[in-house]
């Protein structure tokens, strides 16, 4: 409130000891100022309430979105596990320094595709041997299941210090 009003604020009395309006201040100016301040405080409260409600909605939406994302990720993980293709063979040894080792093939990898060989056309290990001999020096696409996940490996059969062109042992899976 204006300084010429003798320090009268929001709560000081506007009447004297005998309940008459004070003559040392401009009552109209004090009451108008008090009214304007109260209106501004009410506006401030209303705006802060809106902000609070908007924040609650925002956080609720974020929480919902997070829960939905988690549910979708879980559903995707579940469907991925169910949609893993049929493996037909398994790697049971990998020699260090061999083409198989260099490509990242690991023991216990279950083979789903080995070049053109897959679960639908695999009869015996001779199928894989034929593909390996025809692909010497050329990269083969090999898909394996490792730890419940599909993994692609680029394997190039070639001569190396050890036996064979791969340096790993593959055994058929009994299903």
Automatic annotation (TrEMBL):
Pfam families documented for this protein: Nas2_N, PDZ_6
**Annotated GO CC locations:** cytoplasm; nucleus
Keyword terms, alphabetized? Chaperone
Looking at the record, the residues that make up the PDZ domain are 56-148
What GO biological process terms are annotated to this protein in UniProt?
Answer: proteasome regulatory particle assembly
Does the keyword Chaperone feature in the UniProt annotation? yes
Organism domain of life: Eukaryota
Residues in the signal sequence = none
The role this protein plays is: Acts as a chaperone during the assembly of the 26S proteasome, specifically of the base subcomplex of the PA700/19S regulatory complex (RC). During the base subcomplex assembly is part of an intermediate PSMD9:PSMC6:PSMC3 module, also known as modulator trimer complex; PSMD9 is released during the further base assembly process.
Tell me its family: Belongs to the proteasome subunit p27 family.
Q: How does it associate, per the subunit comment?
A: Interacts with PSMC3. Part of a transient complex (modulator) containing PSMD9, PSMC6 and PSMC3 formed during the assembly of the 26S proteasome.
Q: What is this protein called?
A: 26S proteasome non-ATPase regulatory subunit 9
Name the gene behind this protein.
Answer: Psmd9
